[in-house]
Amino acid sequence: MENQSTLGNQPVQKYSLGAKIAAVALIVIQFTQALASPALASIQAAFPNVDTTIIQQIIALPTMLMVFSSMFCGRLIAAIGYRKTSYIAIVLSLVGGFMPAIIHSSIWVILFWRAIFGLGYGLTFALCVAVIGAAWVGQEQRILMGAKTGIGALCAMGYSTISGYLAQMSWEYVFYAYLIIIPLGLIIVAWLPEPPRPQPKKKTATDVPESKLAGFGSFYFMFVILACISVAFTAAFMNNSAMIVVGTGMGEPKNVGFVMTIFSLGMGLGGLSYAIVKKIMKRFMLTYLFLVFGINMWIMCTTDSLAVFTINAFIHGFLFGGINPEYEFIAINSVKSRSRMEDGVAIYVALQGIGQFIGPFLCAGLAVLFGLTGVYYQLNATWPILLASGIVLLIIGIMKKRDPAAPRPDQVD
Description:
Blueprint: E1 4-7, E2 10-13, H1 17-30, H2 40-46, H3 52-71, H4 73-80, H5 82-98, H6 107-135, H7 138-169, H8 171-176, H9 181-191, H10 218-234, H11 236-247, H12 253-272, H13 274-281, H14 285-300, H15 306-333, H16 341-369, H17 377-399
Antiparallel strand pairs: 1-2
């Protein structure tokens, strides 16, 4: 730690570069989820009598359990602090990630380990966002939020590539790759900061009793619900790209992997450049994101060229890399009481997971409602909503000459 600035009446510690590296290392652990995907075909061959949908739970189960474990992250931080919570997250991620390599007598044993990994998966994600929100403010917070998203996406590319080679030798080798969590865990143990947590205001006999939800504020709940719905729409590309590429005859299944690699590259660059783009766009950041999301997705629905679709994938990834840290920054700084920030992050992360889960059902339902068919049916149901949202935000931004209230000290660049 170095010197201090102030946040309201509370000192804000200035943390070292090592603390920043440790905070981002949490998301590098979380993205190890990408290691398992290339092994599914080999695992299916090793368990030929197991239904494909059960094999797919190796990926789906951790994502589902992420929702539950992230919900408890805020309460865990309040009880034992950031560092001790990170120890639990590291152990769960390591044990659940690595153990399928050595104990895998049945598919159900593997799924048991994946469930344990899923608990760590949710904790690392929520903890990473919370510790960045608590330890850094303003532009520094934005830079770290973007770096978290960008580095995570680039790591996912690396993980998938390494895992693909390992899966060709043996599916067990893929799970040995989870040993990378050990050096990452040591970095976190050595340097992760323990920001002081603001204490709730002490109640007096004359104070009016307040709901536990009052500490979040109405804007916070409105925002996280809308963010949950919007991620269901923005994730439509990832959920449908394989069917579009193959179904339209643009390419073969092997081309889908290349398209998604380009998407991940765009997401990485979008995250790393987030703070710069935010500084340019200012209050029009979400306006820009939604407008370009809508236009880009409309172009996807009109092309039959793999080259054009691949460029669209890069743009979509770049936007996705920008909207994630923007949402996280808003979620952190819209919680009314700083003492509830960790709980606010936990709820936000859980709702993001729910949004991704319900996305295919929501988009498919809208497509049926509007009578849309074909391989683009979910994208055609989605892009008008994203474009309309951008137009509404643009009108609001133009009408608002300035923010209705002065920014909080932690939001000043």
